[in-house]
Design goal:
heterodimer, A: 114 residues, mainly alpha, 62% helix, rod-shaped, B: 194 residues, Rna Polymerase Sigma Factor, Chain: A, Arc Repressor Mutant, subunit A, 2 domains, 9 helices, globular
Chain lengths: 114, 194
């Protein structure tokens, strides 16, 4: 072995330190990295596909809201077809009754006719 | 007599981690980081930097987990390559002009203060000389003489053949001798009987 070889071997031997455990803080950082990778790769929950009917039902507020809407529709239809007497009176009171008022008297033009 | 549970391979643990098993990451961390950290420290000679490299290498391992091909390579072989690359990158960027007062002194109570300082200076001189080598030469020399791996294994790690590894090591060592020869007296190699 030459002097140079000995020098090099001495340098290598100096740097050949045993394996070592990272500090507790470094181990925690490594596990935090693992957690962030796990979180990023977790599957995003997907909503099941909805039909048009289900989408409309959801838009109006579900079955409870649909029940109220159906009741209101039937009641409105019934009132329109057969309004109760009290409602007729109320309507007349509010809007008045329909009467015909001639703007011109029919005999005003009698003299103009030749 | 109780039967011991079979030890899971690194690849199996990596697959378990890719499937969402956090405890697999914990096991891999405790199993692999001492060697990763040791390799980084032997190449860099600085504990803080070695920890950074260890964290970086493990992060790369977590990220590659879903795509890991168990038949391709061993996890340890892959890590040797990653750590060697990360360390040569750091050596290159830092330039390694380390001042003597910045040298980390290994705690060895059997040595005199002068010997300890000289050992530290020698280690720093080696790291500095490694930093000046071409990257592939530095990696081959470090894997052979610091990690004490065989040339076939180094060839696998460096994704090349044994003949190329032999050539890289020979040229690397010649270059190291040339760089250290000028500092023989300063580093105490001339009158060294230790």
């Amino acid at each position: 072995m030459t002097t140079d070889d000995k020098m090099l071997e001495a340098a290598f031997s100096q740097a050949r330190t045993p394996d070592m455990m990272p500090s507790e803080a470094a181990l925690n950082r490594i596990m935090m990295d693992a957690d962030s990778v796990l979180a990023a790769s977790a599957p995003v929950p997907t909503r099941p596909k909805q039909g048009v009917g289900a989408m409309i039902l959801e838009a109006i507020g579900g079955w409870t809201a649909f029940g109220g809407l159906a009741t209101a529709t039937v009641a409105g239809l019934w009132i329109g077809i057969s309004p109760p007497a009290a409602l007729t009176d109320l309507s007349a009171g509010l809007w008045g009754t329909t009467i015909e008022v001639p703007v011109l008297e029919s005999d005003m033009f009698a003299g103009l006719e030749g | 007599m109780t039967k011991m549970a079979p030890v899971q391979s690194d690849a199996d643990l990596l697959a378990a981690f890719a499937g969402g098993d956090r405890s697999a990451a914990m096991t891999l961390t405790h199993r692999l980081t001492p060697r990763v950290m040791g390799q980084a420290y032997r190449m860099l000679g600085n504990r803080a930097e070695a920890e950074d490299v260890t964290q970086d290498a493990m992060m790369r391992l977590w990220k590659i987990a879903p795509d890991w091909d168990a038949g391709r390579a061993q996890v340890t072989t892959w890590l040797y390559r990653v750590v060697a690359n990360l360390c040569t990158d750091r050596l290159r960027k830092s330039g390694r002009g380390v001042a003597l007062d910045a040298i980390e002194e290994p705690a060895d109570e059997t040595q005199s203060a002068a010997d300890t300082l000289q050992d530290a200076a020698r280690a720093t001189a080696l790291h500095s000389a490694l930093a000046d080598l071409p990257e592939r030469q530095a990696q081959a020399v470090a894997l052979r003489h610091l990690e004490e791996l065989g040339n076939p294994e180094i060839a696998t790690i460096m994704d090349t053949n044994v003949r190329t590894v032999e050539s890289l090591i020979a040229r690397g060592k010649r270059a190291l001798v040339a760089k250290l020869s000028g500092r023989k007296a300063e580093l105490g190699y001339e009158d060294d009987n230790r």
